[in-house]
Write a structure and sequence with these properties.
Blueprint lengths: L1 H21 L4 H19 L6
Helix pairs in contact: 1-2
């Protein structure tokens, strides 16, 4: 489950970068980035290995 969460976070960060460059999706992609960062931080706080 943890690996799936980090895979999702990486995909969201990549999607954010594409959205930031393309500037087509706007605010939604930034919300997804925040969710990805929160999931990574939760993994660090809980002591899991990050990526």
């Amino acid at each position: 489950m943890g690996n799936l969460l980090y895979l999702l976070a990486v995909i969201l960060v990549i999607a954010w970068a594409i959205g930031f460059i393309g500037y087509s999706v706007g605010g939604l992609i930034h919300i997804l980035l925040i969710i990805a960062l929160i999931s990574i931080l939760l993994g660090i706080i809980q002591g899991r290995k990050v990526l």
